[in-house]
Amino acid sequence: MKSRLALGILAMLVALVVAGTPAYAQATRTWVSGVGDDANPCSRTAPCKTFAGAISKTAPGGEINVLDPGGFGAVTITKPITISSEGFEAGVLVSGTNAIIVNVPNATDEVVLRGLDIQGLGTGVSGITVLTGGTVEVENCTIDHFTSSGINFTPSVANSQLHVVNTIVRNNGPQGILISPTGVAKVSVDQVQLLNNNLGLRVLGSAAASVSVKSSTAAGNTNAGFATGTPTANLTIESSVSTGNGTGIVCGGGSLRLGNTSISLNTTNVTGGAACSTFKNNDIDSAVSLGLTPINPQ
Q1: How many CB atoms lie within 10 A of CB 137?
Q2: pLDDT at 295
Q3: In a domain, 105, yes or no
C-alpha cells in the first residue's frame, strides 16, 4: 500500500515538473542583451545573450532587437528575419571564421541587418556572406578587418538581391565588397564608405550582376576603388568619389558606366577604358587616353 502511495506521489511530482518546464514557441519579436542568457525565452524581460541563441526562438519573418550594448556573436541565418540595433553597440566579433552567414533558400526571403558593428580582428574570414539566395538589406553597419571580404555576395539562386545603405566597409582584403553571383542578381550600394581595403568594390561572377553605386566613396584602397572583372559584370557608378586608391576605376570586363563621379589623386585614375562609358559629367584630375565612350553627356 505504502509503495503504491509513494509511486503515486512520484508520478504527480513528475507531471508537475513536466508541466512547469517552459516550452518556448517561436515569437515574432525577440530580444538580446549583453547580460542575457540563451536559456531564456528571449522575451523583453528575459532576453537571450547571443543572436544564435535568439534566432531559433524567432519565427520566420520576425525580428531580433538589441536591448543594450553587448557582443552578440556569430550567426547563421536560414530563414527570413531582421536583426536590428537602434542606438546601442551591437557587436559581432569573430576570429578565424565568418561573422554572419545568410543561407536562405529563396530569392524572396528577406534578411535585414541593421546597426551592427561587425569586427574580424584581422583573422575573421568574411563579415557578411550570402550563399544560396535571398534579398539582403545591410543598413547602418560597420564591417572591419576581415581577411576575405567585408561583404561576400555569392548567391546561386537567381534574382537574389543585396542592398547596402549608409555603411562603412574598411580594412578588408582582398575586397571590401565582392559581388560574384552564379545566378542573375541585383545590387545597390548607397552612401557607403569603402576605406583602406585591398580593393573597394569588385564585380565578378558567372551570371549577370546589375550593380548600382550612388553617393559613395572609395578611398585609400591599395589595389583599386571600383572594379569589374568578367563579361557578365554590369556596374553603374553615379555621384560618387574614388580617391587615393592604387587605381580609381578598373574597367576589367562587362560594362562600367560613370556619371557625375570624381576620380582624383589615385596612382592611376582609370584602366581598361574599352569597357567603360561616361554619362552626365565626370571629374577626372588627369588625362584619360582610354577612349571612354560618351553616353548622353550633359
Answers
A1: 17
A2: 60
A3: yes
Q: How many domains, the chain?
A: 1
pTM of the model: 0.89
Exposure string of 90-111, with b = 16+ CB inside 10 Å and e = fewer, is bbbebeeebbbbbbbeebebbb
100: DSSP letter: E
- Which residues sit opposite 188 in a β-bridge? 163, 212
Q: How many CB atoms neighbour CB 125 within 10 A?
A: 18
Element (H, E) at 73: none
Residue 288: domain span: 61-294
The domain that holds 288 is classified in CATH as: 2.160.20.10
pLDDT digits (tens, 9 = 90+) for 223-238: 999 999 999 999 999 9
The answer to the question of residue 157 being in a domain is: yes
Give pLDDT, residue 196. 98
User: Is position 170 within any domain?
Assistant: yes
Q: Are strands 199-203 and 217-219 parallel, antiparallel or unpaired?
A: unpaired
Buried b (16+ CB within 10 A) or exposed e, 225-246: bbbbbbebbbbbbbebbbbbbb
Residue written as grid cell 592611376: 268
Burial class (CB within 10 angstroms; exposed 0-12, middle 13-18, buried 19+) of 3: exposed
* Residues 6 or more apart whose Cβ sits within 8 Å of residue 188: 162, 163, 164, 211, 212, 213, 214
Instruction: Give the Cα separation of 295 and 12 in Å (integer).
Output: 82
Instruction: Please tell me whether residue 53 adopts helix, strand or coil conformation.
Output: helix
Residue 32 domain-assigned?
Answer: no
